[in-house]
Amino acid sequence: MTYDFDLFTIGAGSGGVRASRIAAGHGARVAVAEDYRAGGTCVIRGCVPKKLLVYASHVHEDVEDAAGYGWDIAEPSHSWEKLIAAKNKEIDRLENIYHGLLSNAGATEIKGRGRVVGPNAVEVDGKTYTAERILIATGGWPVVPDIPGKEHAITSNEALELPEMPKRVAIVGGGYIAVEFAGIFNGLGAEVTQIIRKDKILRGFDEDMRDGLQVAMADKGVNFLTGVNVTRIDKADSGLTLSLDTGESLEVDAVMYATGRAPNSGNMGLEEVGVALKPNGAIAVNEWSQTSVDSIFAVGDVTDRIALTPVAIQEGHAFADTFFGDKPRRVDHSDVPSAVFSQPPIGTVGLTEAEARARYDDIDIYRSSFRPMKATLSGRQERAVMKLIVDRNSDAVLGAHMLGPDAPEIIQGIGIAVKMGATKADFDATVGIHPSSAEEFVTMRTPVPDPARSEAAE
């Protein structure tokens, strides 16, 4: 059968664009449909603009710290409008790069929402295109709980486009997006209240990272309401009134929900053509990113494997190499480094302490907590925390975690070592760079007392 294209990709985000341009580079005839902007969540409304705002929000601390180093700087002022304008200009530039990547690869861009109407057919704005293979790369979308007044809430999407900076902000949620935006608004001078259902932030992260960050954020002025739920949101003359399940209320100018994201798979005709979905709407795929329909594939957040942009890129690249480049390969989803661009930031790779204790009989924990060198003259009391988790029997480093300045930059390098199967002896044999925080990873020599051994001794 003759098809219009060899590959039809729905979604021009990081995973979809990488898959499309690599497939085109292998000689495939490729079309890409996108109903919004090229670049996807990361470039347009996620990690890139968010990190630009993180940089902006941290400047006030840099100014404060400068006094300890002899600088006399006048009281600074900030323009939210100028920041958003500069951010938008950069996003426009990056979007044009994505268009260029597709164009230079020879892919055809089609504006509109793609809908699968058959195993080899996609409809966009009433026109049907055929393709030997279809790739779904539509990402995820923020979810707001169905409570009265939910229309008054914003998500991370709208937070990046606010016309003015709210003076009082409530952040609902305890995940990485929530703590990152709490740091942004707090750093830019807003009064921030973070509302979480449990007792602490960042469920699923290592406990030392969770505890250390929550203390640091509170010290910076973020007010935490723990074990609390919002029951309704009402519009008031002075802003918004949040009713809490404690019987109390909270007055704010803006409320941002960061309580999770859902795979963006709705209204695409997937189930009608036999594509299996998980209960949360994620597209079920095998190790080759293939769905229950042989000709239809999916990569990135819409599959809900690991919702990280670099993972989507790897999945898209592997798919293109496998099915269009005669170079079959699968993505290894183990030991993927990640970061939280909180203030201070977190970098992490491998197992948490709790995960390691559940999987291994004997582990050793190496932990260090200290004031970074920069803080000695600035007077800031913020502490860095670094941690290695080691299998006592094999000496393999199972996990590495850091809270503190430059943690994401440092963990990227540590991630290579963990991925290669480095042992604690390998870390010990590596000469540290002095003076730096990173050297702590190769100078920790004594494990913390093991609770299991202490109980056995008693």
How would you explain this protein's 3D organization?
It is built from 13 helices and 21 strands. With 458 residues, it is of the alpha/beta class. It has three domains: 5-142 and 262-324, 3-Layer(bba) Sandwich (FAD/NAD(P)-binding domain), CATH 3.50.50; 150-259, FAD/NAD(P)-binding domain (3-Layer(bba) Sandwich); 338-448, Enolase-like, domain 1, CATH 3.30.390. The strands form five sheets. Strands 1, 2, 3, 4, 5, 6 and 16 form a seven-stranded mixed beta sheet that branches. A hairpin with a 2-residue loop joins β11 and β12 (239-244). α1 (14-25) packs parallel to α4, α3 (47-66) packs across α4 and α3 crosses α6. The chain is globular.
Fold blueprint:
Blueprint: E1 5-10, H1 14-25, E2 30-34, H2 40-45, H3 47-66, H4 80-105, E3 108-111, E4 114-118, E5 121-124, E6 127-136, E7 140-142, H5 156-159, E8 168-172, H6 176-187, E9 191-196, H7 207-219, E10 223-226, E11 230-236, E12 239-244, E13 249-252, E14 254-257, E15 261-263, E16 296-298, H8 309-324, E17 338-340, E18 346-350, H9 353-359, E19 363-370, H10 374-378, E20 384-391, E21 397-403, H11 407-419, H12 424-428, H13 451-457
Parallel strand pairs: 1-2, 1-6, 2-3, 6-16, 8-9, 8-14, 9-10
Antiparallel strand pairs: 4-5, 5-6, 7-15, 11-12, 12-13, 17-18, 18-21, 19-20, 20-21
Helix pairs in contact: 1-4, 1-8, 3-4, 3-6
